Amino acid sequence: MKGLVKGKKKRTFVQTVALSALVLGSFLLYTPPSSSVYAAANDNNVEWNGLFHDQGPVYDSTAEPTSAQSVTLKFRVFKGDITGANIKYYDNADGSFHVLPMSWVSNDSTGTFDYWQGTIPASSSEKYYRFQITDGSATVWYNANGPSTSEPSSGDFYIIPNFKTPDWMKNGVMYQIFPDRFYNGDSSNDVQTNAYTYNGTPTEKKAWGSSVYADPGYTNNLVFFGGDLAGVDQKLSYIKQTLGANIIYLNPIFKSSSNHKYDTQDYMNVDTAFGTNSNLQTLSSDIHGTANGSKGYLVLDGVFNHTGDNHQWFDKYNDFSSLGAFESQSSQWYNFYTFQSWPNTYSTFLGYNSLPKLDYGASGSPVRNQIYNNSNSVAKTYLGAPYNIDGWRLDAAQYVDAGGGNGSDTVNHQIWTEFRSAVKSVNANAEILGEYWGNANPWTGQGNQWDGATNFDGFTQPVSEWITGKDYSNNAASISTSQLDSWLRGTRANYPTNVQQAMSNHLSNHDITRFGERAGGDIWKTYLALIFQMTYVGTPTIYYGDEYGMMGGADPDNRRTFDWSQATTSNSSVALTQKLISIRNQYPALRTGSYMSLQTDDTNQIYSYGRFDTTNRIAVVLNNDTVGHSVTVPVWQLSMQNGSIVTDKLTGTTYTVQNGTVTLTVNGHYGAILAQ
């Protein structure tokens, strides 16, 4: 949401699994003997640095199984290191743990590692699994949080049969647009100064590029610059061709008095300042078309927790001939809201009287029918013809509730379960992206609600603290490289793999300070962040202007107008964004491949990690220091063979693997993408 709410709680990276993750980090600095074959033995000691499993295509036979598909799992250890391995899984069907012995199946191509394998039988029930690895009398446990000496009680890997997240979301790059500030494609629909008043305050029209703050006598939420849907349509070639992004996410576009449109007045009509419903149809068609680049996808912002107080259902200002809930207790919409003392005391979103909360009532209630159940409901109308949008981003989704409550309870989860069924009945491949600032597992961990969430917790915050030394609210907060790695591991473990791959990874958005602002205008920090964003697990989400390092503080300053003089590859950051998206599109391993930490060097601020699948092995190296460093990358962990060639996709420079490593110099606040 929205420009009205600040002060979201900051996550601390310290988790219950931090100790084991940090211990793992120390092992990742290990360099093998020059032969690159580790001489492990059955010596009652499991070598942690050889252990690996995730649910990438090398280690998991079926990433999104149906109830009829078994799942074959591989686990990696040093060659000859262990005497046995088991899969231990919990099955929701019987509420019990089951143990499956694994057997040796093969070595890797370098002869450094053994692979052990086991198969979990097919069924329709949800399961969670971990591994038990033994070398004589020694036992190590392994799950998504990494290795540990004692059996873990959380952080297991998921198997959720019949849970599918959209492939286009996993494989795409999203571009977020705040419509009023992107491009003015039709000046005839511009909101002029004093065009109307809302709650006694008039509108103000300002010139493109000027301050977003209102002049005296006006208010920030009623400052307009003229951006519209026609403008987005006219700039699709920039988004889809110049940059290469293929998913457009629009902040709210429906009728509303404010510039941010999070106070909806009419869900069924595009706001006249942005155009018409016909403009939306055209935009959707052009996004899906290939005239301006590859096929694209459109996600709209669904503000379903509350309406504006001037919505017809509420009608606080007598704008409609019908009687709204604020006007009469006999209103047909009276039960759409919760009044403690009619008419002036009612449940609101976070105390804003202009945002009365919708009361979803029980299953089958009028509000549920209007929002998602009926064939002409809001959600279904835009998913179907003639709009054919591809998904909903759910604003303030944790708060949706019945009876004026604040959500995050059984009713909230019931609503989103019903919402998923309704949405998927229209388009099985539609995306459901929930806004949440913490651990969104309650909505994504059972496969029956959201496909993914806004990844403040698992990307935005840790990346900001590592690179800029600031949290996303621009407060001083710095973490080391090893702390970053621990934080990322812990937050990945919160989600099934297909959810991780559909999480929205943004550097900035409309609710937080701009990344460029937190970086102090240092464009090299933006370069580093973009390299990280385009090679990490999840859907890269570019908030318009972040590709060139747009500055901006807290709301509304984070919603400045787009500077179109920067929108060309003559801008080095835009050119880098284009190259990174092209690289990401070239390698499925960067989208749906495994993720393996390789190095956490706190002294030199070097972080490297591998992305790989059955076709490609890629080592990403990030240098968060202000100066360049020579870095020796342990690519033997990725089974890169000695004598093989890797290419830095950013520079074209080639390197030869020697003694299981690649050595290169990486500039300060920059990186390398070493692919083979």
CATH class of the largest domain: Alpha Beta
Mean pLDDT: 94
Helix coverage percent: 10-25%
Shape: globular
Distance between the termini: 42 Å
- Note the total helix count: 16
Strand content: 15-25%
User: How many domains?
Assistant: 4
User: Any idea what the CATH architecture of the largest domain is?
Assistant: Alpha-Beta Barrel
Low-confidence stretches: 2-37
Largest sheet: 8 strands, parallel
Structural class: alpha+beta
CATH topology of the largest domain: TIM Barrel
What is the radius of gyration computed over CA atoms, rounded to a whole number of angstroms?
26 Å
Q: Order of strands side by side in the largest beta sheet?
A: 25-24-23-18-15-10-27-26
Number of strands: 35
Question: What do we call the CATH homologous superfamily of the largest domain?
Answer: Glycosidases
GO molecular function, one term: alpha-1,4-glucosidase activity
Protein name: Alpha-glucosidase
Domain Glycosyl hydrolase family 13 catalytic: 176-584
Signal peptide: 1-39
Description:
GO terms for molecular function: alpha-1,4-glucosidase activity. Its EC number is 3.2.1.20. Residues 1-39 form the signal peptide. InterPro entries: GH, GH13_cat_dom, Glyco_hydro_13_lg-like_dom, Glyco_hydro_b, Ig-like_fold, Ig_E-set. The chain has 16 helices and 35 strands. 21% of the residues lie in helices and 24% in strands. The strands form ten sheets. Strands 25-24-23-18-15-10-27-26 form an eight-stranded parallel sheet. Strands 2, 3, 6, 7, 8 and 9 form a six-stranded antiparallel sheet that branches.
